[in-house]
Amino acid sequence: MFTLKHDFGSQEETEFLEAALVLGTIESVQKFERLRQTSTKCQHKFGFSMEFESEKDYEFYNRHPAHSQFVEEHWIPEVSDFQEVDYELYSIA
Question: pTM score, two decimals?
Answer without folding.
Answer: 0.89
